[in-house]
Amino acid sequence: MMAEPPASLSAQDEGSYVYLTIKDRIPQILTKAIDTLHRHKSEFFEKYGEKGMEAEKKAISLLSKLRNELQTDKPITPLVEKLADTDIWNQYLEHQQSLVSETDGKPRWFCSPWLFVECYAYRRIHEAVIQSPPIDDFDVFKESKQQTFFESQESIIGICTYLQELVKNIEDLDENHLKNEFFKLLQVSLWGNKCDLSMSAGNVSFQKTNIDSLEHFKPFILVNDMERLWSLLSNRKKTRGKDTVSRVDIVLDNSGFELVTDFILADFLLSSKLATEVHFYGKTIPWFVSDTTIHDFNWIIEQAKHSNHKWLSKCGVDWENYIKMGRWVYHGHFFWTLPHEFWAMSQVAPDLYAELQKAHLIFFKGDLNYRKLTGDRKWEFTIPFHQALNGFHPAPLCSIRTLKSEIQVGLQPGQSEQLTASDPDWLTTGKYGIFQFDGPL
Ligand SMILES: O=P(O)(O)OC[C@@]1(O)O[C@H](CO)[C@@H](O)[C@@H]1O
Ligand SMILES: [Mn+2]
């Protein structure tokens, strides 16, 4: 029997990062969503006439109601609109209710687990939109996602050009050189995770990642299991038979610049034959502002393909071909937008768990995935990653994440103390990163 995991992070500690997220950040995101709907008013009118205008009003009033519930710490209420995941959500809410010991026994924004209430906020945003037909397919975050793609054009062109020059003579590279390039593109994908939009309520002025600056950022990698990723993939490449598969799965996080860095890594995995197929997992609804949906996934590839820049458009053409050939596969699943810890996946979404089991290596991108891997619990900094996963071991896996929330496991004794002394905000600024592996040695 595994020991009970520690308590969940929550907004109960006034002044904590979690508290500020619930108090300020989510209301700001709601305000921005309302503003976005407002700005599209005439577009809705052109498309749907009066009905579109009414729908806009309805969605806005539902979002204002949500913001008010949050700001006055009202009890969390069940979802009302019937979707594939509604019953699971409401069961989870009941479960949370059973854990509350206070007088009225209701889960609330400022006391319930952070992971639960934050996911719930985004799920309610989605509910507000789908309750407002005919604008029920509107993604309130689409604009900001697309904007970051355009704003990071220069960096995107930089890494695409780098990749294209690399793959030109990839066959001639010796082992060491190939490993070196693998490490570089892993790091590009890591620092690409600095760019989520929920951190800054969409006002992002993110770090430009380019290949030359990687050495400078190396000291900020707190857990570095890149060697283990290399041994796993290169050993498999050497020992696998001619027609056997090497499958790497990437559980995606943000669209825009980060998604391009993931595509670059995935392209390199195929070009170097470290993998023969790559499977991607995205969200089925708009999520945490910048997370990738199938629309974002396809949109980025289309944009790349139609770029005027020779290498960016070459990337777009190649990526589309990978999809056509089934060497890149996209999966959507509603589990990714549930509030559950990943250790509940085998129970709640056995089909998804079984799919992940087919991978030889799984990358989990970003902070939210890390929170779900570790259950968003107050683990001690030195507890082994394997233990914090609490039984979630579908295949060898690696978190690729910049630190944006007050949770980190698997550090060396003394490491967290040293960081706190030199940089008190080390856990939440996205300045530090990890490659944290779990799997057989
Ligand atoms: O998963 P991502 O995109 O890396 O980060 C998501 C995030 O911005 O959202 C949460 C706070 O709202 C934090 O866990 C984290 O900072
Ligand atoms: Mn995200």
Would you write up a description of this structure?
With 441 residues, the chain is an alpha/beta fold. It folds into two domains: 115 residues, Up-down Bundle (Transcription Elongation Factor S-II, Chain A), CATH 1.20.930; 298 residues, 3-Layer(aba) Sandwich (Rossmann fold), CATH 3.40.50.10880. Helices cover 49% and strands 8% of the residues. The chain contains 18 helices and seven strands. Strands 1-7-6-5-2-3-4 form a seven-stranded mixed beta sheet, sandwiched between helices. Strand 2, helix 11 and strand 3 form a beta-alpha-beta unit. Helix 1 packs antiparallel against helix 3, helix 7 runs parallel beside helix 11 and helix 12 packs across helix 13. The longest helix has 23 residues. The radius of gyration is 22 Å and the shape is globular. The relative contact order is 0.12. Manganese (II) ion binds next to loops.
